[in-house]
Design goal:
about 130 residues, mainly beta, Immunoglobulin-like, five-stranded mixed sheet, four-stranded antiparallel sheet, about 70% strand
Length: about 130
């Protein structure tokens, strides 16, 4: 398997294999912590080859700099099937996360785990901004 994309965005939709992404980002700014980010979407695009037919367990976790998870990620069973003479296939996986509570500023990691093995990671930065009067 090859991870072709792991990103954070406002929303994403898969229309029969065509991926539509809105508002990709890597950082959140807030005046103070703790802060609750109401909604974000994690998008993974994975390419499989015919030797990987079967069910794969997939989850996304977000961890702080100490490796502590922000949420308990649900594990999803993803079936991989091939039809005809396909040499590879793409799966677009969309994970919606609501009400994420960040306790401190810093760098967080968005991790893609497949079959209990981390396959990819991308940073998510929580930065402080100062409101001017």
């Amino acid at each position: 398997m090859k991870i072709e994309l792991l990103t954070i965005c406002d929303s994403a939709v898969d229309y029969g294999g065509k991926l539509c992404v809105l508002g990709m980002f890597e950082g959140i700014a807030a005046p103070s912590v703790p802060v609750v980010h109401q909604h974000l979407t994690v998008l993974a695009r994975i390419r499989f080859d015919p030797t990987e037919v079967g069910t794969h367990k997939v989850c996304v976790s977000i961890t702080d700099e100490d490796g502590k998870p922000l949420v308990q990620p649900p594990v999803q069973d993803i079936p991989v099937q091939f039809y005809g003479e396909m040499k590879s296939m793409i799966l677009n996986l969309i994970f919606s996360l609501n009400g994420l509570r960040f306790q401190k500023f810093g760098e967080y990691a968005v991790n893609l785990v497949v079959n209990l093995e981390q396959k990819s990671s991308t940073p998510l930065y929580l930065s402080q901004f100062v409101r001017r009067p």
